[in-house]
Amino acid sequence: MKKLLEFLISSITGSDKFSVTKESNEAQDNYVVKADPEIIGLIIGKDGKTIKNIRRIMSIKATLDDKMVNVSVSD
């Protein structure tokens, strides 16, 4: 799932100036995307639409794998 998230973000931003870390607990997997401030706007999108859709795609993939997932963005 980490590779899927990295693929989505690199495709949207056209950049590799970000990192994805995974934090797991019993209930869910948390993915934290740390990116340069210049591309955070591209990841979040207008009114948060891009990050909502990224979360939706990740949620669908997690459902297929019987997991729960959360994606957050920081600089």
UniProtKB/TrEMBL annotation:
The keyword RNA-binding applies. One of its GO terms (molecular function) is RNA binding. It comes from the Bacteria. InterPro entries: KH_dom-like_a/b (IPR015946), KH_sf_prok-type (IPR009019). Keywords: RNA-binding. This is Uncharacterized protein. It comes from Candidatus Woesebacteria bacterium GW2011_GWB1_43_14.
